[in-house]
Amino acid sequence: MFNFSLTIKGADTAGRLGKITTSHGDIRTPVFMPVGTQATVKTLSPEDLDAIGAEIILSNTYHLFLRPGHELIREFGGLHRFMNWQRPVLTDSGGFQVFSLADLRKVTDEGVTFQSHIDGGAKHVITPEYAVEIQEALGADIIMAFDECIPYPATRDYAQESLERTHRWAKRCREAKKDTGQALFGIVQGGMYPDLRRQSAEALVDIGFDGYAVGGLSVGETKPLMYEMLEATVPHLPQHLPRYLMGVGTPEDLVEGVDRGIDMFDCVMPTRNARNGTFFTSFGKLVIRNSRYERDKDPIDPACGCSTCRDFSRAYLRHLFNAGEVLALRLGTIHNLFFYLNLMRDIRSSIEHGQFKEFKKEFLAKRGQEE
Amino acid sequence: MFNFSLTIKGADTAGRLGKITTSHGDIRTPVFMPVGTQATVKTLSPEDLDAIGAEIILSNTYHLFLRPGHELIREFGGLHRFMNWQRPVLTDSGGFQVFSLADLRKVTDEGVTFQSHIDGGAKHVITPEYAVEIQEALGADIIMAFDECIPYPATRDYAQESLERTHRWAKRCREAKKDTGQALFGIVQGGMYPDLRRQSAEALVDIGFDGYAVGGLSVGETKPLMYEMLEATVPHLPQHLPRYLMGVGTPEDLVEGVDRGIDMFDCVMPTRNARNGTFFTSFGKLVIRNSRYERDKDPIDPACGCSTCRDFSRAYLRHLFNAGEVLALRLGTIHNLFFYLNLMRDIRSSIEHGQFKEFKKEFLAKRGQEE
């Protein structure tokens, strides 16, 4: 089961409020999806995710295909049961990881041949049809078409050639997909060429998907260029279907993305930064190992309502990080994800009240110290 | 505030039921204390500890003295507030760690000079008086006298000489202790010499403590020898005060210890084993990385009531360990500590019903496969 209903179109922004309905529950959009690469959002239990208000998580097909294997997860009745997470899941197609993590890739029209980063010796082939089959075994509520994610910068010729292959693959994914009740999203590519982005959006809409993702961004380009690519893409996607900006980004990127009509985001930034002791706050980033926090009795962010900020001081967290204690990673992850999810709540509320632009202005001003 | 009341003397065992009262709440004995070396029971939050029923935890003076420093913790109002744990805490004296972890020790009657295992360059001196002062700053409900823990095997001459020093130190600790409301326990030493053990117990009772620990066991000796030393010690300790067997042990050791009149235990075994993927169960140890669990849908122990066994399969836990996921450490720790705490509940219940010996026999028989 999959449905997207647009509930409010922003008064002062291309941003909008919507609701995705799945057999594992509803998702209010715009939404941020915590990343659970290996069938776990690193350091957190499903209970923790519930407590911070996560409505959907993303898991990575490439990693699960390699370990523990999609057939094992199929035996358990899919990812939800395997990891005991009862809310919606989205799986990516494995394309991005094949291109960024695997060795000895060979890309042909048929698919991609690679050696994994885990079992270095073993050779694997993923075709569009196989990517769909794997994701059907994993059983996510939303699955993604298999695409080629090109490096940045890329020549126009290569971007064009790759794009056409990605479109042929998208069509094969669409045709291979069985009637599983899972939604299938297409992925717009086209490098940093606005006309290719438009061409890609239109080609995918012609094939017809349940939603559309914007891929291949936040790969090294400047922020203005990323936003330009969004503006070259989103207007060519259907209003009545969800739009997902893959692998993005900073809190600022989320606000800018929503303003340009994006409904869904995922990124490892809040979880990865947390494990490095870098926390997002209402006043910018906070690096907990900094000696200024040695005797600091305040929580990470006095304005934050997460359980970490309720229960623990900066000094205690700094001690845990310095002592190499695993609890530090979980407490930090809870805070950073809560910050992201709370930001999305604030964004939704501002759209609901027709005050998104005002919210955006204040938000960006407060975070002036950032980085 | 500290009080120990003996509620039931075992009908068929030297084991007994008691209650320790502190200003941070009551502790039912016999009790197992999870080890929170660096002001955290590794991988767990205070909420997790509450959920598995921990009534008291142990923290290590040596580690906290070095990092973050006892003066910092004093500023926070003590360990309870620093780590946000509202129930009782016991701190050891630092003696054992100075002798097992530090470098370049020099033991004199005055105290011990050492270089820490953390800030290799810095030289520290801990005297009995300073050990008490540090523990007063940490603010635990129960603190320990500073003792010398001798290696095994040790000559009788060395054991005797060390023992006499430990007694002089115990007396100085007793005299140094301020009126903080904290309980101070003495530590019986004496190596593997029954007459020295008795001598030590009597000397400490003469000084007078709020409770008595048996130290220097589980240091490499055989189980029968450890039990023999317990039997040489416990009868010479007061009936009306708690007896604490330090750093012990396996589930079997806990049962054997209680049977010989021990009220309190601590050990890193359940937490450390959990982080290595070795779990305690009602049918013996289970090594989760074993390939036989690859597709196993059962929980670690079908007879266990912990949240890990309620929510997750062996196959999922095995996947988390193989994938190096931090969540594995916490889920395993929850299970192993729950097993230990539940064992203590079962032990208390069997004493209450006058059926300890029967319980012990069945427990040991079921775990025949162990190691």
Would you kindly provide a written description of the structure presented here, covering whatever features stand out?
Chain A contains 15 helices and 16 strands. The first copy, chain A, has 371 residues and is α/β, with parallel strands linked by helices. Chain A folds into 2 domains: 2-267, TIM Barrel; 279-363, no CATH class. An 8-stranded parallel beta sheet of chain A has the order 4-14-13-12-11-10-6-5. In chain A, strand 7 and strand 8 form a beta hairpin. In chain A, helix 6 (128-138) packs across helix 7. The first copy, chain A, is globular, with a radius of gyration of 20 Å. The mean pLDDT of chain A is 96. The interface between A and B is large, with 38 and 38 residues.
List its salient traits.
three-stranded antiparallel sheet; eight-stranded parallel sheet; 16 strands; globular; TIM Barrel; homodimer; alpha/beta; 371 residues; 15 helices
In brief, what are we looking at here?
Chain A has 371 residues and is of the alpha/beta class. Chain A has 15 helices and 16 strands. Chain A folds into two domains: 2-267, Queuine tRNA-ribosyltransferase-like (TIM Barrel, Alpha-Beta Barrel), CATH 3.20.20; 279-363, no CATH class.
